[in-house]
Amino acid sequence: MENRFWIAFTASLMAAAFTSAGIYTIRRFEQWAQQKITYFICFAAGVLISASFLHIIPRSFELNSQAPLCLLLGYVGLHVFNHFVTAYVCERWPNQLAANQQRPLGLVALVGIGFHSLIDGVIYSVAYTVSPLTGLLATTGMVFHEFPEGIITYLLLLRSGFSQRKALVLSFLAAALSTPVGMLVSYPLMTYISPSCLGALLAASAGALVYVGATHLLPQAEQEPRKYSLIALAAGILVAVVIVISGG
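-> structure tokens emitted (248 positions)
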């Protein structure tokens, strides 16, 4: 059992490393990324929405019969959170936030992706508790989606008005560090966490990601159309499909 812990922890660190690599890559070529940011937004939307509908939602339905309700709560919950931040933060401090009206949406994205990455860590714990083979299959499918997730998170925050430094730190904390943290916190509790509970968490996470992709990203992309926007969206969908197939 101790060996499985270290294997699961190593897998979660690998996921964090892949996410960090994505963040570093997009930061290193930031000027180029700013010129092509609409394409990245479309790509991000394709990945987030497709991964949710093709993998996270079906899996959560298998684990919990009440997953549809949790999915709805995850979606509506982030909508309410966004409304709260917009109404009580932006309206109370309009001068300070005038140049950053998109920050509430950035916070929504941060919550959704951070929660999803935290659940990734829980999934590593669950998979390796079941068996090393199950853990290996989960790792193969999940690690490869961490690189685009790092890119997505950094660009979301940058697009939402955060400075480069804050976007770097927050994206690392939410998308990279949260995965090993989720693994470390959840592994000792595996005896008490039922598959049904995990299904509820997965469904709520999917609702958050669908909200970010469909309600936040796609409308922004439509406001700044580019020649190859649909191709970028299709590429994001294709990446998600490949990840799901490889993980299956």
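The chain is about 85% helix and 0% strand.
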